């Protein structure tokens, strides 16, 4: 049985918007997976390490029978394919892909935490997620629409339709 999962994407090096769009499309290549939806892209200020270009962010929805760790491994492989280097925490990047939600699964181990531990603090995740899943509830029962209404959207700019 397939599970609906949501992937957060971000980039701020090179042709960031084109990279994010290409990476979203590449999710259709995953085995036993269908790409269901892709949000518009948003421009956002960096978090953590501030001396870097703005980010382009988006969220994609998939239906998959792959287990969560297999999805994670595929995302890491996509990041490498798009030239990701991990020089330091919050460093500029050609592509970042995070497994935000995997159905109603709650998981925390050495490699993966689902739901993504900081997603509810990030308007650049919540707004594009809301664009493609406005009625979504998190595994803890919170409505995404409520989280979006409460998040600080300062500096977040939708850059495409």
UniProtKB/TrEMBL annotation:
Its EC number is 2.7.6.3. InterPro entries: Hppk, Hppk_sf. It is an enzyme of class 2 (transferase). Signal peptide: none annotated. Residues 6-134 form the 7,8-dihydro-6-hydroxymethylpterin-pyrophosphokinase domain. It comes from the Bacteria. The keyword Hydrolase does not apply. GO terms for molecular function: 2-amino-4-hydroxy-6-hydroxymethyldihydropteridine diphosphokinase activity; ATP binding; kinase activity. Pathway: Cofactor biosynthesis; tetrahydrofolate biosynthesis; 2-amino-4-hydroxy-6-hydroxymethyl-7,8-dihydropteridine diphosphate from 7,8-dihydroneopterin triphosphate: step 4/4. PANTHER family: 2-AMINO-4-HYDROXY-6-HYDROXYMETHYLDIHYDROPTERIDINE PYROPHOSPHOKINASE (PTHR43071). Catalyzes the transfer of pyrophosphate from adenosine triphosphate (ATP) to 6-hydroxymethyl-7,8-dihydropterin, an enzymatic step in folate biosynthesis pathway. This is 2-amino-4-hydroxy-6-hydroxymethyldihydropteridine pyrophosphokinase. The lineage of its organism: Bacteria, Pseudomonadati, Pseudomonadota, Betaproteobacteria, Neisseriales.
